[in-house]
Records
---
Amino acid sequence: MITKSSKIWLFLLSLAVGFIPQQEARAAGCPAADPRVLANGVYAVLREGLTPAEAEAEKQPHVVLVYDRKYSEADKNQPAKYIALDTSCFVPLVLAGPPQTHTDDSGWTLLNITLAREHVKTLADFTRAHLDGLVATVIDGEIITMHKVRSVIEDGNVKVTRCGDDACRALYLKLVR
């Protein structure tokens, strides 16, 4: 018999392991990724580790990729990390038009991306579910950049900032090819 107290503990436990946001994102039509051949997209970071074993995430569909920071001049001297990515829900990188770049006052490239209309709601639900969490941009099976979700993106217009010098440029070049 499940008591009211048990239900509250189950709810709190599900929040702690991230079950509720994933369910909300999935219910909104968020696609699952095939971990054997990852589609280009934005994925939630579940865990990080210095070895693949450290990054493994229990009881959640995921894939572990190496993040070697080769596209970030500022971070190239940092050791590689292994990142567990949630494959139960991701945002496909299908764009409405070409990405746009500009340079900030520090000389770093900033990137503006507009998702195709059919993925705008998915992005809104995904960013809502992962607010203040880390996400990874994956293209051709490798992590290009990682970012913290700072706000819910309702309109499909993504502003990629704070790329290490010059990961946004690398992301741009991969998106326009």
---
Amino acid sequence: MATFVKKQGGKNYYQVDGYRAGGIIPYFTHNKKYYILVNKEFRAKKLKYHFLGGKVDLKDKSIHETALREGNEECGFLINPLLPKLYRKLLFDKPPFIKITKSKYISYLINIEDSDINLWLNLPILFKRIFKNDSYVLKHNESINLQWISLLELEKNLEQLSYLGKILILKLKQRLNIASETEDTFLDV
């Protein structure tokens, strides 16, 4: 169960399982290249790429719940049908994760299964169609858009990543045990 940590600027902050925030990093490989689902949102008044995740809420019972709730919120609740499967994956399969100890953040790497690939690949398209006229229809949705982008493209555009995103990209490469990719950019879906 989430516990109160501090109040700052009129907002309460919580932690659960020793973490203050969590997220997911959906990814897949195609032609030996890694593609990551990211969102674009405003950070420090600039539009930045960001990984799916966010802060613990008072109602969160575990960091797994935080990670999936935040990922779902930032995807415009479009991964609702996958939540039970993803929750089981986090609990029982124990996918690889990235911890950032200083900020008490954890992000789970979700390797997209073939059976779910169509839903995942179509998320950016669905998101755009649903939220194209009003990206703030959902109160918790800060995403401007979703995008599948190659790890190489993220590396090339570090200035377009949030601070946390820059840290995650370096740790992600280590976790996936890969060196810099040599070519290509966006996956057209």
---
Amino acid sequence: MTAPHFVLTLSCPDTVGIVHAVSGVLVTQSCNIVDSAQFGDPATHRFFMRVTFAAPSGATAAGMEQVFAATAKRFEMELRVHELGAKTRTLILVSKFGHCLNDLLFRAGSGGLAIEVAGVASNHTDFAELAAAHHIPFHHLPVTAATKLEQEARLLALVDSLGVELVVLARYMQVLSNDLCRKLQGRAINIHHSFLPSFKGAKPYHQAYERGVKLIGATAHYVTPDLDEGPIIEQEATRVDHAMGPDRLVEVGRDVECLVLARALKLHVEHRVLLNGSRTVVFS
């Protein structure tokens, strides 16, 4: 039988002996390290580590976390162990623009992204047929200013009932309340164009065209109460020129958004992203 493989991630105050201690525990459990990366941040004085390892048959992620309990307490670690390659149950939120949704559904269905799409939820019905074509449940959650809190309660109930581990805002054009952001902390990812904060509001690409912008980009980040200012996971930019009108800029921008969001999700579900205050450590 193939040995089970796991990913261990940790962060803790930086000090001497962390790598030695982690390696030592793995040796006592007859585990073999396949890949290891670490980073000590001189600004925050915290240490970050990601280790992929093979374990004896019968080992479980929960069991391995228990094995590390004493070491984690000794070094004040925030430590997690995940089964390598396990699919992350994901809920995708979308509004009127479906390019990111369509891209993620294709990647998930073709095996390019280790997520299990538990459902698609939207404040509109535009993409119900797209979800159905992928045999994924679609949930219509309409919202108005008067019903926002009620709608968010339904959304959170959906997250709980479906066993969702990750919520993706794939161009979901609703601002989440501070309360919901806190409840989804570390497990909700958003994508937006990188013009912010320069070009806010409607038609940002048209605003960019009027200003003669030469670079178009996108940012994927964790959702926090600070609107569009959560810890950044991934970014990308591409050059444009004077011959491109607003509609062409929109097309280019959507391509970049799809790419950046997919990359961010891949990094997240492979447990390569560790939070470092308002920033992230990304082991690529």
